[in-house]
Amino acid sequence: MAGREWDLLDGVFAPPFSATTGTAMELLGLTGDHVPAYRRDGSFLEIGSGTGIIAVTAALAGCGRVVASDISPVAVENTRLNAERHGVGGRVRSVHSDLFDALGPDERFDTVYWHSNFVLAPAEYSYRGDHERAYVDPGYRAHRRYLTEAPLRLAPGGAALLQFSTRGDVDRLRAIAAACGRTLVTRRRREFAEGAETLEHLLFEIRESC
Ligand SMILES: C[S@@+](CC[C@H](N)C(=O)[O-])C[C@H]1O[C@@H](n2cnc3c(N)ncnc32)[C@H](O)[C@@H]1O
Fold first, then answer.
1. 1: helix, strand or coil
2. Which residue's CA is the nearest one to ligand 1's atom 6?
3. In the prediction, which pLDDT does 194 show?
4. Which terminus of the chain faces fewer neighbouring Cβ atoms within 10 Å, N or C?
5. Is 144 exposed, middle or buried (0-12, 13-18, 19+ CB in 10 A)?
């Protein structure tokens, strides 16, 4: 993927089986001919790094400080392995964290990004394993937290980004954002085929409402 080879551990969100990671790379401008949606010479926080393909590619593209967090321990190890494989182990810190919890209180970034688990599950749904966390978010609890906390993690002039899908409930997401004092600005969108379906992924910028 993206002209490089990657480790993929069992139980980690698997880019070969979904077009969404490739779409993420295009939306961010890490591949293809888009202008970067992140600050190329800046710092980059990826929530939910999975294999680490996005975080590692951001480091290889020039981001000097990259932090990759995931709630799945095996994804944290996968990201670490891929950072080592591509020689950026010293610049990509892979941390086990529920969203921002394991970060220092003062850590700020030029870009904060999450390709999220956008499928809405009932609020009372209990995960049967970490792998499900890559896909579904009961009651959009994690999204509510991300919308609230991501803008607070920005360095001056930074951008808090969320990659979401038309498979998710966009209206519900916007309502949660409004309730949290946030506005979602669509920075980019891209359609792609998954099986017989045409899906669209949206790259939202989360802004604090005035
Ligand atoms: C759709 S996958 C994206 C993986 C990878 N970024 C990619 O594009 O291939 C979502 C990722 O978010 C992680 N995740 C889900 N809930 C999380 C949370 N509360 N905190 C941190 N990571 C989370 C999942 O474990 C999964 O790796």
1. coil
2. 49
3. 85
4. C
5. middle
CA of 49 to the centre of ligand 1 (A): 6
41: number of Cβ within 10 Å: 10
Domain of 113 in residue numbering reads as 15-208
Give domain status of residue 5, yes or no. Answer: no
Residue 6 located in a structural domain: no
Number of domains forming the structure of the chain: 1
- CA-closest residue to ligand 1 atom 26: 134
The residue to which tokens 């359609």 are assigned? 191
Q: How far is residue 200's CA from residue 85's CA, in Å, rounded to a whole number?
A: 32
Tokens of 116: 């999220």
Please check whether residue 25 is in contact with residue 31, taking contact to mean a CB–CB distance below 8 angstroms.
yes
CATH number at residue 77: 3.40.50.150
Q: How far is the CA of 79 from the centre of ligand 1 (A)?
A: 12
Q: What parts of the chain have a pLDDT lower than 50?
A: none
pLDDT of residue 145: 98
Q: Residues lining ligand 1, CB < 6 A?
A: 13, 15, 21, 24, 47-51, 53-54, 69-72, 75, 97-99, 115, 117, 133-134, 142
The answer to the question of residue 139 being in a domain is: yes
